[in-house]
């Protein structure tokens, strides 16, 4: 679920402007999973553009407090959301921790880096949601450490059905600055893509794991 339509449209436009999101239906990208995709999203690029990272920081801060109340701690999911999560925590004057995919094999063997007390209210910051599996693993680690996870916020989601199901099953509220639906709407309106390309992108989103470039 997006925070609101205006934010979703503006965020989509900013991400397209700096090529954090690239749309290329005719020459698809290959994800680490092996999926062929007409879209590639790397929201870490936003950190290199101060006006855009500040916009994201402020929209996150304002909207997450409105939705979840002011938490005790902001948690970022490593590695993509460490930077933006820290910016949100700084802006809100809150402690920050980040969650690794798994515990370190050496030293103190931490999975959660930073100071976190049992019973503290935490909002998790993520950069991108695809299936939601890795994001929800971070939530689980925080819960196992005794945190009260109020919800998660992310810059962008592909809006896959599997992600919706995963978050529902985990009973975790997810809110995003923008999503795939608003991205396509904005991309056509601003002529980043044609209406024909929009249809290709819609087809992909219905079955991304089986979509084939030959269908384009």
From TrEMBL:
Q: List required co-factors.
A: Mg(2+)
Q: Keyword Cell membrane: yes or no? A: no
The UniProt record gives the binding positions of orotate as 130
- SUPFAM superfamilies tied to this protein: PRTase-like
EC top class, as a word: transferase
Q: Where does 5-phospho-alpha-D-ribose 1-diphosphate bind?
A: 100, 104, 106, 126-134
Under the heading InterPro entries, the entry gives: OPRT, Or_phspho_trans_dom, PRTase-like, PRTase_dom
Q: Which reaction does it catalyse?
A: orotidine 5'-phosphate + diphosphate = orotate + 5-phospho-alpha-D-ribose 1-diphosphate
Pathway terms, separated by semicolons: Pyrimidine metabolism; UMP biosynthesis via de novo pathway; UMP from orotate: step 1/2
Which residues are listed as membrane-spanning? 73-99
Main function: Catalyzes the transfer of a ribosyl phosphate group from 5-phosphoribose 1-diphosphate to orotate, leading to the formation of orotidine monophosphate (OMP).
Q: Which PANTHER family match?
A: OROTATE PHOSPHORIBOSYLTRANSFERASE, URIDINE 5'-MONOPHOSPHATE SYNTHASE
Q: What NCBIfam families has UniProt attached to this entry? A: pyrE
Q: Which HAMAP family match?
A: PyrE
Q: Per the similarity annotation, which family is this?
A: Belongs to the purine/pyrimidine phosphoribosyltransferase family. PyrE subfamily.
Q: How does it assemble?
A: Homodimer.
- List the protein's name: Orotate phosphoribosyltransferase
Give the species this sequence originates from: Flavobacterium qiangtangense
């Amino acid at each position: 679920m997006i925070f609101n339509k205006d934010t979703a449209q503006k965020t989509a436009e900013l991400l397209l402007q700096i090529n954090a999101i690239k749309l290329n239906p005719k020459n698809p990208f290959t994800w680490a999973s092996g999926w062929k995709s007409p879209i590639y999203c790397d929201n870490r690029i936003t950190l290199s553009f101060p006006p855009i990272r500040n916009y994201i920081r402020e929209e996150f801060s304002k909207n997450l407090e409105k939705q979840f109340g002011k938490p005790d701690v902001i948690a970022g999911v490593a590695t993509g959301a460490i930077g933006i999560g820290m910016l949100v925590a700084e802006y809100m004057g809150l402690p920050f921790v980040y969650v690794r995919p798994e515990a370190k094999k050496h030293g103190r063997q931490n999975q959660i880096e930073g100071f976190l007390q049992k019973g503290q209210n935490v909002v998790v910051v993520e950069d991108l949601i695809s299936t939601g599996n890795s994001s929800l693993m971070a939530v689980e680690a925080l819960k196992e450490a005794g945190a009260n996870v109020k919800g998660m916020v992310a810059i962008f989601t592909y809006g896959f059905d599997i992600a919706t199901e995963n978050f529902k099953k985990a009973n975790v509220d997810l809110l995003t600055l923008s999503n795939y639906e608003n991205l396509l709407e904005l991309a056509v309106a601003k002529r980043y893509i044609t209406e024909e390309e929009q249809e290709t992108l819609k087809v992909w989103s219905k079955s991304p794991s089986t979509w084939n470039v030959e269908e384009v």
